[in-house]
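User: Predict the structure for this protein chain, please.
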Amino acid sequence: MAVSTPPGRKAVRSDLEQVFRSAYPRVVAVAARVLGSGDQAEDVAQEVFLTFGRSRVPAAEAVGWLCVAAAHTALNHLRTGRRRASREKAAGVGDAVSPDVADVVVTLDERRRVRRALARLPRKQAVALVLRHSGLSYAEVAAALELSPGSVGTVVRRAESALRKELNRHAPSD
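Assistant: Here is the predicted structure, written as structure tokens:
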């Protein structure tokens, strides 16, 4: 018996399970690289796969599309969290709470600084950096961002330079 799609809802792709099984670890890895949290990365992956499930993206382009979508969605989560933290600080929320042990650890603070700097980069540069440092090849990054393979290295180098400038600009003064 065929299951019909309710009016107003798009049908889910028939290849979703196969794409999910093959691409999920990579999508989570891309999101985790941006967010620094496996739990948040899995939430982002779920969001991305839900969108993909209703899309018409060709299966051959699925991995690249999913990785770019994961990077974009994770960056959006970072930016949303930064805005929320700013509003909470302005409202005095959390002032009486003792600091989390993880906040004391220098490496975690450094990772947060990098993630904040990454969120301030132009989206194309941030995504190129995340994809390349998540293990995608130059060809995969080029396909995902619709660039020529020869220009990926230039985009990544410029993004790394811009990231260094952002980190230096917002370096903590000791």
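Helices lie at 16-35, 38-53, 62-91, 101-104, 106-120, 123-133, 138-145, 149-169.
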